[in-house]
UniProtKB/TrEMBL annotation:
<feature type="transmembrane region" description="Helical">
    <location>
        <begin position="170"/>
        <end position="188"/>
    </location>
</feature>
<comment type="similarity">
    <text>Belongs to the amino acid-polyamine-organocation (APC) superfamily. Basic amino acid/polyamine antiporter (APA) (TC 2.A.3.2) family.</text>
</comment>
<keyword id="KW-1003">Cell membrane</keyword>
<keyword id="KW-0472">Membrane</keyword>
<feature type="transmembrane region" description="Helical">
    <location>
        <begin position="20"/>
        <end position="42"/>
    </location>
</feature>
<feature type="transmembrane region" description="Helical">
    <location>
        <begin position="140"/>
        <end position="158"/>
    </location>
</feature>
<feature type="transmembrane region" description="Helical">
    <location>
        <begin position="286"/>
        <end position="306"/>
    </location>
</feature>
<keyword id="KW-0812">Transmembrane</keyword>
<dbReference type="InterPro" id="IPR050367">
    <property type="entry name" value="APC_superfamily"/>
</dbReference>
<feature type="transmembrane region" description="Helical">
    <location>
        <begin position="87"/>
        <end position="120"/>
    </location>
</feature>
<dbReference type="InterPro" id="IPR002293">
    <property type="entry name" value="AA/rel_permease1"/>
</dbReference>
<feature type="transmembrane region" description="Helical">
    <location>
        <begin position="419"/>
        <end position="436"/>
    </location>
</feature>
<feature type="transmembrane region" description="Helical">
    <location>
        <begin position="336"/>
        <end position="354"/>
    </location>
</feature>
<feature type="transmembrane region" description="Helical">
    <location>
        <begin position="208"/>
        <end position="227"/>
    </location>
</feature>
<keyword id="KW-1133">Transmembrane helix</keyword>
<comment type="function">
    <text>Major component of the acid-resistance (AR) system allowing enteric pathogens to survive the acidic environment in the stomach. Exchanges extracellular arginine for its intracellular decarboxylation product agmatine (Agm) thereby expelling intracellular protons. Probably undergoes several conformational states in order to translocate the substrate across the membrane; keeps the substrate accessible to only 1 side of the membrane at a time by opening and closing 3 membrane-internal gates.</text>
</comment>
<feature type="transmembrane region" description="Helical">
    <location>
        <begin position="239"/>
        <end position="266"/>
    </location>
</feature>
């Protein structure tokens, strides 16, 4: 057993040969914040209010406690196996390649469901901005054009797509900070609504916690760059704690401001942040609609750049059909994976709603976090450390138990149909991995 573990560790270390460790804690925290602060926050306050009413901020707090344990486990696990692939490397090193594959499937499923959900929210925002576009036909057209156009850009070349994303994403947090400042000042000045949100003690709080997990998930994607972080045993945990703490505070403030300005009107709003500031000045509503659309397009572009590469990697590893690993003959991009990913997201966005897709994506992320917490504990027991002294959190076993228990509880908050679908994905992924291994051996 020890020899097998040593071979696995050597393999993880070799994976990072040639990479330059040039990313510090602040830069890595910014990368985490950039990925976690997604476009869904422009739509989420309304869904949270519909689920839990005035108790919505408490759902964020409850989810933050659960995510705090997950973040700490990912911090120690990432410091012990600071390898490219992030959670894949950590989970595979601790629990084996099959668990790593299941984690990869859960991460991909979370990505494609989130892509469909944000595309649906983008169509809703367009309806709010241009009432003439309301209707099923126009909604489908918006989704197809948005996802199809971004997929075409990604197929044209990774350099073009990366330049567009890099130029655009650095401004997406500014409108959210503007919303909190302007809305907060307005509330303190007496501009709060006269129709507050209803009190729903216990009612819908579970659904709200699942939605909050959707808003706070995403740290696992930047962790794929762990092989390029300087002093990883210190900077990975620092970046995780700094980035996730700041994001949690921002989201709670956004929810409080939206509830304070709109009250009961928050429920059912298709563009809650825009509608909230629109009560102060119609020009602010137009500004927030533009910001929301811009942020959603940035997030769609980012997901379509990264997530299809998971399909490509699976195909190259022989765990899914080789068709997904084909490259464009001239552009040298994984065009088949990109278009399949975009088509799946189109189908999800057209047939589902933001809220439904966000819940499914959250359950997939919860499964990934469950595996990540368990992996950190296993790596601690085996005393695995690839690069110097790792982070050694006091009470890690208890933290891991809290993280795993929280994720199990969040999965349990879903509907039976949702839980059944989640378990079926895990079982089918494991069976698929075993089948592909048999085929390769044969």
């Amino acid at each position: 057993m020890m020899a097998a573990n040593a071979q696995a560790v050597i393999g993880e270390a070799d994976r990072d040969k040639g990479l330059v460790r040039g990313m510090g804690a602040i830069a890595f925290a910014a990368a985490i914040a950039n990925e976690v602060v997604g476009a869904g926050i422009y739509r989420l306050p309304a869904a949270m209010a519909a689920a839990a009413g005035v108790a919505s901020p408490l759902a964020y707090l409850g989810c933050l406690v659960a995510m705090g344990a997950v973040v700490l486990c990912f911090a120690e696990g990432g410091s012990r196996v600071p390898t490219s692939g992030g959670p894949y490397g950590v989970i595979a090193a601790a629990l084996g390649p099959m668990a790593g594959f299941v984690a990869g499937v859960l991460l991909y499923l979370s990505c494609v469901l989130a892509l469909g959900g944000v595309a649906a929210a983008f169509a809703d925002t367009a309806d709010a901005a241009f009432p003439a576009l309301e209707g099923t036909g126009a909604r489908i057209g918006i989704i197809v054009v948005a996802l199809g156009g971004i997929a075409w850009i990604n197929v044209a070349g990774v350099e073009t797509a990366a330049r567009i994303i890099s130029w655009a994403t650095f401004v997406k947090v500014l409108p959210l900070i503007f919303f909190v400042i302007v809305g907060g000042i307005a509330i303190l000045s007496g501009h709060s609504t006269s129709t507050p949100l209803p009190h729903r003690p216990g009612e819908g709080i579970g659904e709200a916690v699942i939605l909050a997990l959707f808003a706070l998930s995403g740290m696992e994607s930047p962790l794929a760059a762990s092989g390029e972080v300087t002093n990883p045993t210190r900077n990975i945990p620092r970046a995780l704690i700094l980035g996730m703490g700041a994001i949690g505070l921002l989201y709670i403030l956004i929810q409080l401001v939206a509830q304070g300005l709109l009250g009961a009107g928050l429920i059912g709003s298709k563009a809650p942040l825009a509608d909230a500031l629109g009560m102060l000045d119609p020009r602010l509503r137009a500004l927030m609609l533009v910001a929301a659309s811009f942020s959603m397009l940035c997030w769609l572009a980012s997901d379509l750049l990264g997530a299809p590469r998971m399909l490509f990697a699976f195909a190259r590893d022989g765990t899914i059909p080789a068709l997904f690993g084909r490259l464009h003959p001239r552009r040298k991009t994984p065009h088949v994976a990109i278009w399949i990913h975009a088509l799946l997201a189109m189908a999800l966005a057209i047939t589902g709603t933001f809220k439904q897709l966000a819940i499914f994506a959250s359950l997939a992320a919860a499964g990934l976090y469950l595996l990540g917490c368990g992996s950190a504990w296993v790596l601690r027991r085996r005393d695995v450390a690839l690069l110097g002294d790792p982070l050694a959190l006091p009470g890690l076993p208890l933290i891991a138990i809290i993280g795993m228990g929280s994720m199990v509880a969040i999965i349990g908050l879903g509907q039976w149909s949702e839980i059944g679908a989640f378990l079926a994905v895990c079982v089918l992924s494991a069976l698929g991995f075993l089948m592909m291994q048999r085929i390769k051996r044969a």
